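How a chain folds remains the central question behind the approach discussed here. In the encoding step, the backbone of a single protein was reduced to a row of integers, each denoting a local shape. We regard such an encoding as a compact summary of how the chain folds. The sequence in question and its structure tokens are set out directly beneath this paragraph:

___
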Amino acid sequence: MRLFFAVWPPAESARVLAQWARSVEREAGGKATAQDKIHLTLAFLGGVESQKAIAAAQRVKAAAHELAMEQARYWRQNSIVWAGPREAPQPLLDLVERLKIELYRAEYILERRPFAAHVTLLRKARPPESLPPLPPIQWPVSEFLLMQSVLSSSGSRYQPLARFELQ
């Protein structure tokens, strides 16, 4: 069982992002992220027990906010196409920081690299000549989730374990 914390877009926002990714897939190859798997990861925990993570997340106090998907880019180092805000909104940065503090207090070991607010939309892609502009996307963030990723021969399946409301 691999665990991670994430925010999930509303269904319509996920549909628009998935449709955009499929249009890029035709030029760049690779594999578009399935609509029901589109998310923004806040913290990856790996193969750990969930109860301590749930208790840590319950102590997080953060504000609900909007997340703007304003840009799409290709990352050559890991061959992905991603979408995200031009600048992460302060409430999202506060959420990530408060979550990491509580996870450290619960003795989780987290990645040390800086948080990059992005949604992976295409994996194993070739560098595209250009990326089409993203359509307008509304993504209200009113909760974050603890998710379980279960790997199988047909790929990974995500299952929510707990939801945490934002104020």
Notes: The helical segments are 11-28, 50-58, 90-105. Residues 27 and 129 are 8 Å apart (CA to CA).
